[in-house]
Design brief:
7 helices; mainly alpha; 0% strand; 214 residues; elongated
Amino acid sequence: MANLISNYLNNNSIYSAFTTSAKQADNSSKVTPVKKVAPVDSNAAAIYVKSAEEPEKKATYSINKMSKEDRAAIAEQLKADQAYRQQQLTDIVSKTLTGQSKSFGIATGDEFWRMFADGKVTVDAAAKAKAQEDISEDGYWGVKQTSERLFDFASALAGDNVEMMEKMQKAMEKGFGQATKTWGKELPSISKDTYDAANKLFEDYYASKKEVEA
């Protein structure tokens, strides 16, 4: 509508020429007088005034035109997308905790991590020192940073949606179990502490949402 009004204003000279030619036509015919339109400032903003006779138009959304089958297909797609996101987090958790366990093994001298190294990793003093730094309280593989990463992954996939976050928390639990199975025995204590810390972040999130609703 705005474009139509703008075109009308920009072509006002054409409109004036038309009214003039209409007046000079057959004088024997009764011509409805046309009110002259004052020159329009092209820089002025166009104002739309709704006619009293103009019917009210209702917004039309494409979903209203969909068949029952089409709507069912969309619902199934949404479910599939949700399941995919949950599986994404499960995989992320499993790989993250496995990676953390490897660094823990290098730092502590637990040789079990070597089964994942494909024989390409040698542990010298520098590598061990780096691993010890990584699993420290403020290190990349430390409890704080790792648990925060897991929670951040979950919230990024779920958005600010409590129901989806609850499903992501279950996906994280599944990832913990998957990592344990991959590891072949119980995960190191640092991974268990990380899992507990991540769960605490979820609980804090739920509590904050309840406070807002109260």
